[in-house]
Amino acid sequence: MKKIIFLWTLCLLSGWCYNEAVAQSKPRIGIAGIAIENSTFHPIVTNTLRWSEGEAVIRGLNYLRPDSMMGQRAVWLPASRISGGSQQITREAYETAVGRSLELIKENMPYDGFWFYIHGACSVMGLDDPEGEFLERIRGLIGHDVLVSTTMDLHGNVSPRIAIYSDLITTFRTAPHADGAWSHRRGAYNLLDRLLSGKGRPAYKAFVAVPILLPGERTSTRVEPAKSLYAMVPEVEALPGVLDAGIWIGYAWADEHRNQGVVMVVGDDKEQVGSSAKKLAEKFWAVRKQFDFEAPTHSLDECLDLAVASKKKPFFISDMGDNPSGGGSGEVTWTLARLLKRPEFQSPTGKSLIYASIPGPEMIAAAQKAGVGNKVEAMVGAMTDNIHEGPVKLSGTVMFTNEQRAVIKAGSMLVIVTMAPQSFQQEQQMTSIGLNPREADIVMVKQGYLVETWYDMQADWVMAHTRGGVDQDLVNLPYKRVIRPIYPLDPDMPDPELNVIFWPSGKELYGR
């Protein structure tokens, strides 16, 4: 019996030792990032940022589940991911959030690889390059021997520091972002593959600055020329000696040096990497004057005239100037004030119009007190962002109310009022508060190009030139710091050289 117990114990110990050896052989990969998109053309700032810690950072990333292939082949060590609204960030708020992230990153050291998971359009008061600064500080902790993969939104900005401190880099290839999750996965997979294969850091990172400053609304990959431009990216990626390629449109509503178009290609064949980056950049520049809005674009009044006259429903209107998911404050009342004055919507029997949305804590409190079916009146919007219009008095009947939202019927308009600025991107967000967008005559949303939910639903669609922090009238915005000349601010500028820069790694740059 003692012999059997001894052998059984030996087997258990052997199994434990084997498992420990396997665990120790897996690469250790840290994760941290910052996902914020801020316009510098509205007055709102924030002292408060949100962040996720530990496992919450990767919640929903099914490809990193413990039972997934990628999840099993590495020890994933998520530290934190900073997020926030569309407001510019104070330096104090940034330092608090980044400081906490660095503490968590330090706790999980050492690392073989690191995944820097960002958007790329964060704006911090008094700081030129928030993401680059963050990555530089991460490098200061983890060192330059650790392989770093940066994944980004194509509406982010690749600064020199991001390019230097990233060994691998990738971005989305569709706008709207149907491939967002897949693109982040690609960046994580490439990192894991380079670690497991022993190939390590790609030898070359080619960077080309393309002096173009265009919004996503004019560069949708659903239509030309972006559709064909971005179709070139996977073709480049498939070339021998190339690991990944990306075209960054950049972010148009921040007045900073790094805001411009960029092409980057990484890989091990210098000639292939460099020539491919040059080819993509030249094509990007060549089609610059072909970029246009995805849908017909008019003034607000012209859009409303078309919607009222149309027999198609639902007829969608994009309130482009105040898109909170693109960096706008989401509380501009310029559009709502004009809607409330339109005679077509004064009567309850007029064409139905859902307006999504406007923040108004005062209205929600009043609606809760009055109750459904009763009349209510309160001020909404422009709590801080009142550059274009002040708060608007909204009067009507309460159709729905809870602690976070209210629906107020004013004439034939159904105005969604929220506690905080919100971009309605899912049908369920409306049906949950008693609205049926499919049956509405007109639906107006604070977006630029329509997200897939509304794009698939719309019977017709126009984009309205409205005011706000993401105003589409770029040439009249008060840019002072973007590098000039740049298209379309300087439409007659000479053709740029589109020089290919081979950025060194941080280790090559600093020698350690």
Please explain how this structure is put together:
- The longest helix is centred in the N-terminal third of the chain and has 24 residues, at 2-25.
- Strands 12-20-13-19-14-18-17-16-15 form a 9-stranded mixed β-sheet. It has a 6-stranded mixed β-sheet with strand order 3-4-1-6-7-8, sandwiched between helices.
- It folds into 2 domains: 23-291 and 499-510, no CATH class; 297-471, no CATH class.
- The protein has helices at 2-25, 69-72, 91-107, 130-142, 160-165, 180-197, 226-237, 270-286, 300-309, 334-339, 361-370, 427-431, 452-457, 506-510; strands spanning 28-35, 45-46, 50-53, 75-83, 88-89, 113-117, 147-152, 168-171, 204-210, 242-248, 261-267, 297-299, 315-319, 353-359, 375-380, 392-401, 405-410, 413-418, 442-445, 460-465, 501-502.
- 30% of the residues lie in helices and 23% in strands.
- It is an alpha/beta fold and 512 residues long.
- The protein is globular and about 70 Å long.
- It is built from 14 helices and 21 strands.
- Helix 3 (91-107) packs parallel to helix 4 (130-142) and helix 7 (226-237) runs antiparallel to helix 8.
